[in-house]
Amino acid sequence: MTDEIREFRDGIFALRTRRFGTVAEIMIEALYNFTKSHNQFHDRYDEVGRQRIEIKFSTVMKANKAVINRHNVIDQCKKANLGNRALNSNDRYDYDFDCNIQQVKRLEFDVLYYGLFFADRIAIFKMRSDEILSCLGYSDKQHKGNKGEGQFHLNRNSIDYHMQHHFVQWLTYEELYHLLN
Q1: Which pLDDT score, from 0 to 100, does residue 145 have?
Q2: Which of 103, 105, 127 is nearest to 114 (CA)?
Q3: Which of 99, 100, 124, 112 minimizes the C-alpha distance to 176?
Q4: Which residues, other chains included, contact 132 with Cβ-Cβ below 8 Å and sequence gap of 6+?
Q5: Cys-Cys with 20: which of 15, 136, 171, 172 at CB 3.0–4.6 Å?
Q6: What is the mean pLDDT of the chain?
Q7: What is the DSSP secondary-structure string of 123-148?
Q8: Is 76 helix (H, G, I), strand (E, B) or coil?
Q9: How many whole angstroms separate alpha carbon 157 and alpha carbon 155?
Q10: Neighbouring-strand partners of residue 107
Q11: Pick from 20, 6, 25, 2: which is nearest to 114 by CA?
């Protein structure tokens, strides 16, 4: 990986919430030629298939078992960097990780593109909204009172299910960089 690509990847990992989500949305739009959404309830639109597209991604970080306390707070902060915690895709069975695909409002979209930004490449998955209820570990109870909104987790125990049933493709950071450039 060149310095330019590494800086690009590290920047993606440094983004939080909405800004990170926007990168994932632009990536999926560019990969599959989707257009802007028709309303605020889904992320993109597939003009060819006439489908509402939702996009949810997460960065993959090794789990940290140490609880932060007064005695280790400085050490834990120093160890929390990308170099220590970002997980390579080939190590997905060797380390614990937990990526929460959340705020899934299955009635508001037809197809969910979701995935994992590993340290070395990106895994892209796809699931139809009518498959969500049978997704391994799906819970339609995310927040009290939020009807029709759920979540599921990708982790060391569930990754095989997603790879076998919903995997679409791997994308390297070099490929993403050139796609967006």
Answers
A1: 60
A2: 127
A3: 124
A4: 104, 106, 112, 138, 150
A5: 15
A6: 93
A7: EEEEEEGGGGGGSTT-BS-SSTT-TT
A8: helix
A9: 5
A10: none
A11: 25
Those residues with Cβ within 8 angstroms of residue 69's Cβ, 6 or more apart along the chain or in another chain: none
Rounded CA-CA distance 35/50 in Å is 11
Count of beta carbons in the 10 Å neighbourhood of residue 81: 11
d(CA 148, CA 138): 12
Question: Which residues 6+ apart lie within 8 Å of 136 measured at CB?
Answer: 152, 158, 161, 162
Residue 40 DSSP label? T
Judge contact between 167 and 123, C-beta under 8 A.
Answer: yes
Q: Which long-range contacts (CB under 8 A, 24 or more apart) does 157-160 make?
A: 159/92, 159/93
In sequence order, what are the residues at sequence separation of 6 or more whose Cβ sits closer than 8 angstroms to the Cβ of residue 109?
41, 42, 43, 51, 52, 53, 54, 129
Tell me which residues of the chain have a pLDDT lower than 70: 142-146
Q: Tokens at residue 97, please?
A: 């990780």
Domain coordinates of the chain in residue numbers? 3-180
Q: Where are the alpha helices (DSSP H) in the chain?
A: 3-14, 17-32, 73-79, 82-85, 159-165, 173-180
Residue type present at position 142? Q
- Calpha distance 48→126 (Å, rounded): 17
Q: 49-60 pLDDT, tens per residue? A: 999 999 999 999
**Given this model, what pLDDT does residue 66 score?**
85
